Amino acid sequence: MRILLAEDDKKLNELLTTQLISKGFSVDSCYDGEEALYYATQNIHDIILLDRMLPNMEGTMVLTKLRREGINIPIILITALGTLNDKVTGLNLGADDYLVKPFAFEELLARIQCVTRRSPIINQTILPTYCDIYFDNTSNTLTGPNGSCTCSKREGTMLEIFIKNGGQTLSRNTLLLKIWGPDSDVEEGNLDNYIYFVRRRLKAVGSRLKLRTIRSIGYCLLEE
Predict the structure, then answer these.
(1) Half-sphere exposure of 71 (CA within 13 A, CB side)
(2) 2-124: what CATH class?
(3) What's the CA angle centered on 140, arms 175 and 117, to 5 degrees?
């Protein structure tokens, strides 16, 4: 699961980022509202943790703009403003939850689990099976007609994306953003390498699925 963390307190940002990564999340962090809006509009995150009082653009404005643009990623507002009116305002603007500072990390984890569990976006896109393969993201294991094989974390991320979007063409830029994140300076040749690795994994488990190159666009997982 990829999280966008927008928090201008550098120490808290770094602490939360470290804690979330230790729990297996991928985290992209930023420190102001304009950055948060830019990253969020890439629509590559599963949940956004959004501080309300951000420089350059307040979190409530970021939230308002995202909802107006039809971006329905689950958002938890994290803020020191904890009056009833503050909470009601945040929720009415489209936040899925509201967490008042200071808070225990365990509570944040529980809120993340609760919000993502009830999110229709996430629940509709979690498709661990497609055609004749199954991918277990807890063990990074791909299973097909001829057995199973263990994948690297990056291979697993790519496989899960293709499985969730089976039959759809994904652009190279979309894959780079979803797998390496918006801040990565990864070379496009690395994407080609992992496309090759994933094709080998599909062949190893005997799948009839093929990862096809769609010229000048990207790739598509198709059944033969």
Answers:
(1) 20
(2) alpha beta
(3) 75
Q: What digits encode the pLDDT tens for the residues 75-101?
A: 999 988 878 888 898 899 999 999 999
DSSP, res 10: H
**pLDDT, tens only, 111-160:** 998 887 765 544 444 446 889 998 887 788 999 999 999 999 889 889 98
129-223: CATH, from 2.40.30.20, 1.25.40.340, 1.10.10.10, 2.40.10.10 = 1.10.10.10
Question: What pLDDT sits at residue 134?
Answer: 87
DSSP 87: H
Q: How far apart are CA 216 and CA 221, in angstroms?
A: 16
| Pick from 93, 98, 94, 117: nearest CA to 108 | 98
Give residue limits of the domains in the chain.
2-124, 129-223
Q: Contact at 8 Å (CB) between 141 and 149? A: yes
Cβ-contact 89, 79 below 8 angstroms: no
CA torsion through residues 93, 97, 101, 105, sign: negative
Nearest to 117 by CA among 97, 133, 141, 98: 97
**Which of 80, 81, 76 has the alpha carbon at shortest distance from 93?**
76
User: Which residue from 182, 139, 180 is spatially nearest to 161, judged by alpha carbons?
Assistant: 180
Helix (H) or strand (E) holding 15: helix 10-22
Instruction: List the single range of 26-30, 42-46, 158-162, 213-217 with lowest mean pLDDT.
Output: 42-46
For residue 55, count other CB atoms closer than 10 A to its CB. Answer: 12
